[in-house]
Amino acid sequence: MARIVLENLVKTFGAGVTAVAGVSLDIQDGEFMIFVGPSGCGKTTTLNMICGLEQPTSGQVIIGDRVVNDLEPGERHLGMVFQNLALFPHMTVFENIAFGLRVRKVPTADLNERVSRIAETFQITHLLAKKPAQCSGGEAQRVALARTTISSPDVLLLDEPLSSLDAKLRVEMRTELKRLHEQLRSTFVYVTHDQAEAMTMADRIAVMQGGRIQQLGTPLEIYRRPANLFVAGFFGMPTMNLISGRICDSDSPRFQSENLDLKLPAKAVPRTGTDRDVCIGVRSEHVLLGAQGAAGRVQLTEPLGDETLVFFDYGGPSQLVAKYRGDRTFNVGEAIVFDFDPKGVLVFDAEDETRLA
Amino acid sequence: MAATSPPHASTAAVRRRRLFPYFRHAVLIAWSLIVLFPIFWMVSTSFKGSGEWIAWPPHWLPHQPTLYNYQQILAVGPLATAPSREATEQVYNIWKAVGDSVAIATLSSLVALLMGTFLAYSISRFNVGGKNFRYLVLTIRMVPPIVIAIPILMYYAVLMPYTTDLLLGVRISLFDTYVGLGLLYVATTLPFVIWMMLSFIDEVPYTLEHAARIMGAGRLYTLRRVVLPLVASGMMVTFLFIFILNWSEFLLSLTLTQPQVSTLPVLLNKFQSAVEGRLYGPQAAIGTVITLPVVVLGILIQKHLITGFSFGMLRK
Question: What is the ipTM of this complex?
């Protein structure tokens, strides 16, 4: 079957450019794994090493129970959907889908039947005679998926396949991809820089930066218990509030920074967190706007319908944001009082940026 | 254009904008007339009798149109059998030269196109020869042909027969052979093919080949089914371009052939007689005959010419 094991993968380009700096990962059979990170973090290079378009500088790629380092991409029994879809512009949709079968010299009758069957699955039968340029964005996407899945590969690799679609279609395609994964039950490895895509689709997420995996876990683990400041800042919209300061007195701890002095409940603060330079992180939904706490002044509001994002200044170096559910309207310049929900306060070391537990 | 102009635009500006297309066309028409005039003159002369060739004032159109010149060069009609009284009435059979020209120009252009396309692919995809190779390739064209013509003549006519005689006991000479001239045509047009095909192949996205590779296609299969069909228009354009070069090449052909092999441009130059000097009528007729295949070829692949030129060059 198609479990994928990456053992200490390294890829360097030319002199001193390290794209992937030691990635070890065990992707289970049938798992939906998503590599997420900013551009240049090494996620696409890692994907290319799995499919064989790049040779690892060192380390091993194991698919199923074979080391595939020396196998051609075509021999690894995997499918790949590219960012620009890479449909052959001079061939009809039919020929595009049939390409892989033609390469393997599948008999014509069998080929015709398989193409029409997969076209029905993806509802693109009416497009078969057209050229890719005549298809809409969503249709082209489905053609690319049909072309990739027709040979029922063990592993499906997807390199930012939704990035060229408009926002509405992208959300629709997420659902479709998830359904496809459930149908095929093959291993999906998906690369994206969009944390929302990662959150909604993945079984597990590998957050990458600087050629390394920063954190590996389920979407909720990564959202709630980010391993370090990078992960904390990368996930979540709006971005997590981060404030540098110190926590004093472990019995009735207080968080103190230049312009803020907040009492924290004892259980919110890890034992190792007191009397050292820290950075606390609080997501906007854990910033409470109410009757007690510190004072702030509203700078900007973004009503989202069911809730409102309130950006406010508390006198510190950057503004904070609160997600407010309720009917109250906030005006710019209005004075407010805010507090942090103790269960949402995360404490990070200011030096090495890891979360203190 | 006019729709986007503000309502209060000055009338002078509006008039200028309205007149611009006329001005542009006037310039283009004037330029076409300058370019086309020699061709018109050639075609016109080819239908003139010997008295009209250099008449003064010039006869823009032949006063007594005749097919005499064509009958002479193509060796058809009454001329082919009747005895001639003057030099201008001689029969000059150009069919052998037409055959030679067609064979050499077509084959060497095809070989150069094929080799150059594969070379361009390897330069584009594998950086063969290093970063500056694609520019260095063109330097071959900077050598004036006359500089290499004489050394190659020595090589073909003297050095090669001598060496092969010494080593193999057979005299092999490339002088005055199809292969000898064809090889040089391939060598001299190859840089153009590489240069032109590079611009087309560079435009084909890598990911198309990656996709084919992951679906199990080998290099050659991918090249044949994916890359070459996408640059087919470019190949047509390139072929026409180097075909014209080879078809009209004069200097190398003049130096390295005779009497076995003879191409049309060389033959054209031979049309003169002791009594009447240059035989402008037959020369013009040959010129017209030489030009025709290229024009016909151009018309046949016109569709590809347009897509080809806009594909590689304009979109950058």
Answer: 0.83
